[in-house]
Specification:
Helices cover 40% and strands 16% of the residues. With 196 residues, it is of the alpha/beta class. It is built from 6 helices and 6 strands.
Length: 196
């Protein structure tokens, strides 16, 4: 079987976002693995409009070329890790819109998450898991939560220190998530291959 190809999706598009710092750390960590291939996708690069199709592409093809380009891009991957902030107890609007712009492309693929903020985006990741179920994804139990004192060590709102200062705390949950991601990516790739 081929090596699973995983997209790491930055879900905040704000100019003043914090996401770039944990994204760089996450990519440094995952690139040390040889059992999956990882690629960083930044929602800023896709300029997605608000969802304005006649229906989900579960029912009919999308017409907006930007939505179609997004669908084509995410179709390439066998699983996803969403890097998300928490906005008012949920995921970013940009991420919800990006999820809504596709359907078939997400189906039967695992979805992991790394969240950051006061509570490590725990509530946002819970919402993300519910959305993933509706998109027929496999939401992972394990996630990475950069929150509380560890968040303040690396955030510009606090000490703005290097991410290396929180690696020891985050690495066990990251390893657990990646091991689970690999298992589900292999399982869902095998199942999708049978259906083809």
């Amino acid at each position: 079987m081929s090596t699973p190809k995983i997209a790491v999706i930055i879900s905040s598009t704000r100019e003043a976002r914090f996401a770039d710092k944990p994204a760089a750390w996450l990519m440094e960590q995952v690139n040390g693995r040889d059992d999956m291939e990882f690629e960083l996708l930044d929602l800023r690069d896709f300029d997605l409009p608000f969802f304005d199709e006649a229906a989900s592409n579960a029912w009919m093809p999308s017409e907006d070329p930007k939505a179609v380009a997004w669908q084509d891009r995410i179709r390439e991957f066998d699983g996803y890790v969403f890097l998300t902030a928490e906005y008012n107890h949920s995921i970013t609007g940009a991420l919800k819109n990006a999820l809504d712009q596709a359907y078939k492309e997400w189906n039967r693929k695992p979805a992991g998450a790394m969240g950051y903020g006061g509570v490590g985006a725990a509530r946002a990741i819970e919402h993300l898991r519910n959305i993933a179920v509706e998109l027929q994804m496999v939401p992972l139990r394990n996630a990475v939560h950069l929150g509380g004192g560890e968040f303040m060590k690396v955030s510009p709102l606090g000490q703005d220190g290097p991410m290396s200062g929180v690696t020891e705390v985050l690495k066990p949950s990251l390893d657990a998530m990646l091991d689970e991601l690999k298992w589900w990516a292999d399982a869902t790739m095998a199942a999708r291959a049978k259906d083809d």
